Amino acid sequence: MSHLNVRSFAEDANAEPGVYSASNGVAMPHAYEAQRVGTEGPLLLQDFHLVDLLSHFDRERIPERVVHAKGGGAHGTYRTTHPIPDLCFAPLFAEKTECPITVRFSTVGGESGSPDCARDPRGFSVKFRTKQGNMDWVYNNTPIFFLRDPAKFPHFIHTQKRNPQTNLTHGDDSTQFWDYMGQNPESVHQFLYLMGPRGIPATWRHMQGYSGHTFKFVNKEGKWKYCQIHILSQQGTQNLTNDEAAEKSPDEHQKDLFSAIERGEYPKWDVKYQIMTPSEAIDAGVNVNDLTKTWPRDKFPLQPLGEIKLDQNVANYFAEIEQVAFNPAHLVPGLEPSNDPVLQSRLFSYPDTHRHRIGVNYQQLPVNQPNPEHKHVNFQRDGGMAFYNQGPRPNYISSLAPPKFLQRTVDLDAVHGDYEGNAISFLSGVSEEDFVQPRELWRKVFSEEDRQNTIKNISGHMSTCTDKGILANAIAVWHQVDADLAAAIAEPLGLKGKYKTDLREAVFNGSHNFLGRDVGTNGLKTKGPTVANNIDKVKDAVYGARKPDGVASVNGHAANHSTQNVAANGH
């Protein structure tokens, strides 16, 4: 199966040597030559070859990704092994079929030249070239994330980058890193995951992928269920300690993947899913829109769907990896987004950054072009680098050459609910529930060796922060997870007994503090999320009152922050 739907980049790599030419195709006698007056005189402006060469060189780089800048990938195939027509009417999942894919792995916070083996979450993105159009899964290697409020994302990412004054990274100054954590305690689940044994994957081949966000499977009757996707390595999982990572090449993960494929050792992953109905979510106390939480696997077990196999290295990194553009809004009918506000914000942000980074016509690049079974036309015309501008077709809906419109057989609009409600300014609140799953991870999932290494990782990372107040705030958040954990972190930092053990009266600059409060009062529904702004005033309008003909649940979906059913919390 061809992994790219246009001319193969590998064709150029394997072709006969070409004739060296300028950009206009005119053959040139040598790539090193430049026109000048004699052997000692000045250069000539008329030398198109040299001017052409230098001016293109001056523009070789495009802006690096603001997140996920360092990465690599390969091409391969996805195939459905366990069709789910009763859950999803997308042909890719409703039948035993396959399609070509491109996968990109990456770190999140590092720059394009940063080391592969940094302690950082990883991106795990897949571009499916289906017969219905391109579908992108823009996932991470962790099932949760640092935040659930979309406006926090730029602030958080800024704290993962260089200090704006000193330009130092966390290796020399981790102040802003821990300042964010201490002011946004809901992030502690992801911070513990990051600082724990899974924080540095040994290779991309030994790494998992997770949707993190909740999506919706829709069947041909228009009935839907919530779903989360898991991509599990058939090679097993392997991770590195800080000491092991320090000995690796800066490009260790890229080198490992490329070499394995060249040897014919093609990595594979099982694709599995969890499903949940809105009523099940209410009964289980699961807020499907909270990116900082996992779904309990004992109640919502993993079920098989398909397999990913990578078996073709890229022929040109820039063309096939640096320019590949993933967009979580790229979905095929049958898979729909949920109301997760972070997901909703990403649906806008990703294509917006591609237009900035690559150009408005980035989807015309070979690696991004869709190749559906129908001839696809639209009215997105002109703009920079319009390689294919749809010929003489009118650039409006015209009676001269009207496009065909394929009517949907399923009412996908109905999947997203029917709401009435007031507009509100919304910010999530921190409650005891935010510490339940990280506490389970620390006490019941990590081994004793894992715990000791995690303490060492945290205290070591904190040691480059010189602000004792910021450290005390962060340790106070760790105390909410486990008192012994906090004490062990504090001791080597000289902060034993110098941090708060009760955060009920703490003031966070990024969240409301609901610790020690009955969130079932204050105008909130008992089985509603512990989130609201102006909570004494909003009452039911916080969520939008669903019309009677819909499912009688919060926001048209389930939401209940609860401390129950976390023993098998998806870790």
TrEMBL record:
Which positions does UniProt annotate for heme binding? 350
Which residues are in the Catalase core domain? 21-404
Q: Could you confirm whether the keyword Iron appears in this record? A: yes
Keyword Iron attached: yes
| Recorded catalytic activity of this chain's protein | 2 H2O2 = O2 + 2 H2O
Q: Can you tell me which residues the record assigns to a coiled coil?
A: none
Requisite cofactors: heme
Tell me which GO cellular component terms the UniProt record holds.
Answer: mitochondrion; peroxisome
A GO term, aspect molecular function: catalase activity
* Keywords from the named record: Heme, Hydrogen peroxide, Iron, Metal-binding, Oxidoreductase, Peroxidase
What residues sit in the active site?
68, 140
User: What is the recorded function of this protein according to its Swiss-Prot or TrEMBL entry?
Assistant: Catalyzes the degradation of hydrogen peroxide (H(2)O(2)) generated by peroxisomal oxidases to water and oxygen, thereby protecting cells from the toxic effects of hydrogen peroxide.
Protein name stated in the entry: Catalase
Organism encoding this protein: Pseudozyma flocculosa
